[in-house]
Design a protein that fits this description.
This protein has helices spanning 2-28, 33-37, 45-54, 61-73, 87-122, 126-140, 143-157, 170-204, 207-214, 219-244, 246-256, 262-271, 275-303, 305-315. By secondary structure, it is mainly α. The termini are close together.
Length: 316
């Protein structure tokens, strides 16, 4: 519990620092909110002054940040300059699509990344070479290009999957999100497969695995209880990093497949300098990254009990 409390406190500190950076960055960017609101029209100085007064733009910078941060802690993310909607409501309406896409991609990364890596480490020959080639391809191919190829092959040419929209209902949404999830997960699968293959290979050559085989322990039991389990520590770190980065990468895929998620909302808000929306989405991404990393750290104790004991001593 002490360790968990320290990590949550650290996460809160990261969120506060990140919120200040995001808030500062938006106001340091070219242009200003009042210029966007007048849409390029020529208005009198009095009108501009009224707009600045309405949105508190004449207040000192730190005071504006303090008021905004206080509202955030109360669940008020402000109002969109573009639509005048409540930002919390606006983001909440888009969040399910992004979360579903990220969850789908995360499942693909875990299943295919770990599965292909283990098979490549335990079965040498043509299959291993194919996995290595596929991982190299995953490193080299940009996500947006992978999305275009998938859309052309399985959408336009074969007609197996839709290439736009999020669908309605569980089955229809799953069908619509398949191509976007594969495109989003492709680089992650490549990284996880490569790391898994290396970790399992190193564990196979470890002393305790060799001794277990020498004592006559069945090879399948050695593989699952000793080799794969002990190799999952570095793999889980990589998986956590890849999954945490899915939300940040999702905007490219959402834009390509015209999905109604927070990624496409972010792109549109950045283009139109909708400050409140950009700040809210940036904070959500930082929070998601921190929480996923925290979950991965806590899972270490499940994978290897020795990690739990070490943390317990450190906490005391």
């Amino acid at each position: 519990m002490v360790y968990l409390g320290k990590r949550l406190a650290a996460l809160l500190g990261v969120l506060i620092v990140s919120s200040f950076i995001v808030f500062s960055g938006m106001y340091l960017a070219p242009g200003s909110p009042e210029q966007f609101l007048v849409q390029g029209r020529t208005v009198s100085p009095e009108v501009l002054a009224a707009i600045r007064a309405q949105y508190g733009l004449d207040d000192p910078f730190l005071l504006r940040y303090w008021h905004w941060l206080g509202d955030v802690f109360q669940g008020d993310l402000g109002r969109s300059l573009l639509t005048q909607q409540d930002v919390t409501t606006l983001v909440a309406s888009r969040l399910p699509t992004t979360l579903a896409l990220a969850a789908y991609a995360a499942i693909l990364i875990v299943i295919f990344g770990v599965g292909l890596g283990v098979l490549a480490a335990t079965k040498s020959g043509v299959f291993e070479k194919l996995v290595v080639f596929g991982s190299n391809l995953g490193f080299a191919v940009p996500t947006f290009f992978a999305a275009l190829v998938l859309m052309f092959l399985f959408g336009s040419s074969l007609g197996w999957f839709p290439v736009s929209g999020s669908g309605e209902g569980f089955v229809d949404r799953l069908w619509h999100l398949t191509l976007p999830a594969v495109a989003l997960a492709f680089p992650g699968i490549a990284v996880v497969a490569r790391i898994t293959r290396t970790a399992v290979r190193e564990e196979q050559d470890s002393e305790h695995v060799i001794m277990a085989i020498a004592r006559g322990v069945p090879k399948q039991l050695v593989l699952w209880r000793h080799t794969i389990r002990n190799s999952m520590l570095p793999v889980s770190t990589v998986i956590g990093t890849q999954i945490a980065g899915l939300l940040a990468s999702a905007f490219v895929i959402e834009y390509a497949f015209t999905l109604d998620g927070i990624g496409s909302l972010l792109v549109n808000s950045v283009q139109k300098k909708d400050f409140a929306v950009v700040q809210a989405i940036a904070l959500i991404m930082v929070l998601a990254f921190g929480l996923i990393n925290l979950i991965v750290d806590l899972l270490y104790a499940v994978i290897d009990p020795r990690v739990r004991l070490t943390k317990g001593v450190a906490a005391r």
